Amino acid sequence: MGERTSPSDGVAARQLAIKALLRIGDDGAYANLVLPPLLERSGLEERDRRLVTTLVYGTTRMQRACDYLVDRFVLDQVEPQVRAALRLGAYQLQYLDTPPHAAVSATVGAVKGRGKSVVNAVLRRVAADLLDRDGDWPDEATRLSYPDWIAASLTRDLGSDEARAAMEAMNEAASVHTRDDGYVQDPASQWVTDAVGARRGERVADLCAAPGGKATALVETGATVIAADLRPNRARLIARNARQLDVLLPTLVADGRRPPFRPGSFDRVLLDAPCSGLGSLRRRADARWNIDQDGPRRLAELQVELVSSALGLLRPGGTLVYSVCTLTADETIGVLDQIVHRVPSLDVLDLPSGPWSPWPRHEGPGPVGYLLPGEHDGMSIWRVRTPGGI
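Structure (tokenized):
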């Protein structure tokens, strides 16, 4: 997990990593927003910048596991700087190939004040313990470093084997995939775009379109695509990406629950709905610690509202594609079940072509597809057609 490090890696990289971890942990800042400006101002060489990135993202992901490794040797509460350094040291010792003496000495050197002695003593105990222990962990949630509720939710909805595989995959760094037009986009998102099935001359709405990857790809089918998003800054991001790709994509600020379009005016609607993101946690190292347990249920209520509004935009025989980058039953099969109960005349379509698997143990109407995270994000999808039409 992560890149290899060597004894020559210095104190400065760890000092910057601790600074970032404090911002993420104490201030609630997002790792992907905190780290780039810190690196830009650091003056570190490229090799050390890569190390900082590995340390910050890896330590943030594996925070719970790192706490377990050190807390057996911490007798009292410690200040935030010491806690961040202990997590950082434990991450190097457990997950990187950093030699123990280098991990301990460089991490201790990055600590200011009296906390040095605590970090030195505890990390030496952790290093010695790792030589003797057989990889025993109190439970899978601790080993894989997830909140209990996420581990329990994924296990309940997917089964233990697939939940474990998903959580292990999301502990790895995300891969970078680039489309033929140069736009960076995860393959799972590209498969969602394919599932829309847009054709030349059709009218397509993308109601939650930011950052615009799916909408810009839909334009390439020859369809007339209109993109919308709730927040002005996100709508501006869509427009900027469309300009960079040199595609015509009308974009507006709009609430998908009250879309400003004439009823029945679209052939197809894509609703890539706001979700808990429990299939794409590898992209947000801090997200697992910031999502609350009631989030999926609350989001499912919003998703049902969005779907209900989107259906009204479709012509008779029009198609709605619903996707979310999560793997909870509430936000996937639960939403479809509610929608079909409200609108029983809908035709639930077969799974699109591609790597989609049918949702396990789903006894409701029609198939719901999902992808476990791997070389791509975890994703869920279903499609419905309105009655009537040709």
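Residues 2-9 have pLDDT under 50 and may be disordered. The first strand starts at residue 203 and ends at 206.
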